[in-house]
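Give me structure tokens for this 96-residue protein.
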Amino acid sequence: MRTFRKHLGEKLKGDRFRSLYEEEKQLSDLALKIHEARQRRGLSQKEVAQMAKITQQQLSKLENGISCNVTTFLRVCSALDLKVDVEEADPAGVTA
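Here you go.
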């Protein structure tokens, strides 16, 4: 019987799948960080949404890894005092 990890390993050998997988993983990681930051501060989605001047629904989508626009993302990060940092990746795909 094939395991999920073996199946994923095989799929990740394909350039297109690996690229899409990495994009989704980054989005998921960001969503989780925002969710955790909000919970650490003891704030509700409604409170953070008001601070960021967005709707609670927009924040919910962001925390669930659903694409949002950059302005919404930056507003939420600002409301939660989160630093946004962009790093250049090396040619092999590993961040510098």
